[in-house]
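Hi R.,

As promised, here are both runs. First protein below:
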Amino acid sequence: MPRAPIDHSAPPEDDVSGESRAVHPDGEAPPPVADAGADATVNLATSLARHAARQGTRSLSLHQRLTRSLEELTPNERRIARFLLAHQDELALYNAAELSRLTDVSKATVSRLFRRLGYQDFREARDQARSLRQSGVPVAAAPTADHHQRHYEQECRNLRQALAALDMLDMAALSGALAKAERLQIIGFRNAYPLALHLRQQLLQLRAQVAVLPQPGQSLGEEVARLGADDAVVVFAMRRRPQGLARLLEWLGQAPCTVLLVCDDSLSTIPAGIEHVLRCPLDSVSAFDSYAAAMSQINLLATRLLHDDLVGGRSQIRRVTDTFDALEELGDG
């Protein structure tokens, strides 16, 4: 029996990779060509409405897009959506074929779902998930058998980068400015606050007039307004920074005080006037950023300041130790 002729005019279908072979620049398949002018007008209006909807979802996370669209999805699309809502932290680990296999739906359905959600394709959604982790958002993934080894290797890379960054500082100029400063103010927000506290704890054993700003419940304005040429400020500006920090850095760049900025690579713009910048990697194979390298940098900074004024530093350490004994604050450990 002769085969029916193949209709080459049929609209393209999704290929085996899960991506469409004929896609509009914004990610939607082009609307069919209409024969009548009225139909063409309707199709154009529909296309424009879809484009506007996509533009409105650009800033939404995958979770927000899924929850908004869940009731409008087909049963197979809803199966993928529910899987993603339960495992969205692992999206960065999958490709379209693996997601298809895990949800037992076709790769074409996976592709259609992500276009319906406003993405050009699956890769755009996966890149968004990866960028969240790189910006500091905790993203959990299922632990692997070699997780501890990979964690160790990443920590070693972080330490090497952190020490290389420390070597690039003009330590003589920095330590000289910090040593002669009448007051040393340390600023850190959110995850950087413990770093500020730890640096203060180390430096209080070497010198007086070390403070962390702002004090609980207080604002910065009244504290930094009186900064002068005899003051020094250390600012920890790690990722997921509060919005006002950029304005603060601009202000400090114009102030007469010495400024040391400790930050990760996500802070790309350094205001003019900030003389000393120390980069610190936070990368981790785990859900959370690692601050081990930052703590190591603090150790070396404090040690350098001690060595630069060994006589004065030792005198202050003895004074602090004697006060501990007099107050019986510390145990035998």
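And here is the second one, sequence first, then its structure tokens:
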Amino acid sequence: MTANAVQKSQTHLTMNDIRDAADRLKNWNKWGENDEIGTLNYTSAADVIFAASLVRKGKIFSLAINLDNNGPQGGKTKFPPVGRFNPVHTMLRTGTDAYSGVLDKRGIRSADDLVLLPLQAATHWDGLGHIFYNNYMWNGYDCREVSSFGAAKCGIEKTKEKMVGRGVLLDIARHLGVDWLEDGFAITNEILSACAKAQGVEVRKGDYLLIRTGHMEAKWAAGSWDGYPGGDAPGLAFETLDWLQEKQVAAVATDTWGVEVRPNETDEANQPWHWICIPIMGLTMGEIFKLDELAKDCAADATYDFMFIAPALPITGAVGSAINPIAIR
């Protein structure tokens, strides 16, 4: 396969386009005025039962990168800082302490540790309290519901019994015959539909949709995360919001830092796809998913659906969560 593919977005969005999308795609009150989980409501108990039937080989794939100081937040970027850093892991007590005897007064020798991390530093879900549209968050809640004490509405803990169902991988890079898509490559509705058709898989209501661009592999090949956090990247075109709304997926995730194509399709807003996806549609999104090994296995037997399990850490009031997503085939 060739190293990359080129398809720069020719779309130039205006604020009017963004406002029109907000009006067209607004799901507020669709699941009641008190709803705090949005499109996760699409996955039914029957969907979960069916997802269990997709375990055909008993093969398990972690879709997470490791939580350590080698993560993407160490990459150079021109993106305005958002305060994220790679996880910091430290020990509270160690085997050296045990060997020295200082722990013996406790009657047991042991080790303990601690981790400090931004919840969106590595593989993660963005919660519905993460992005605001003007002064509002998902379902029309006042953005001030998220304060220095956390999210009083739409905290990630509200999803702790969700994130289980049928997973579907759309391997866009493989479908287009490349190792990875070039930075700025815009994945359109046409490409999503053509990929699904070529793979012989249907994207259905309640699915957890994973989209592989190969962007992570491109950074590994370069030997550096430079440009990954907030830099130019392949990703979903703004128009795909309508496609995802029509398909009624529960959540969507990619192997990139921010899901949508960068440079963005407008200079009038930053991350315009986010503006609509989270606060307007209530669509949970995942970022920095490791999809390479899953993609190889799916391609080997031409089967692109599987059981998907990726619960968030139930951190009260959090607007995101580090996760270890699991695909079981």
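A quick note on the second one: The two ends are 26 Å apart (CA to CA). Let me know what you think.

Best,
J.
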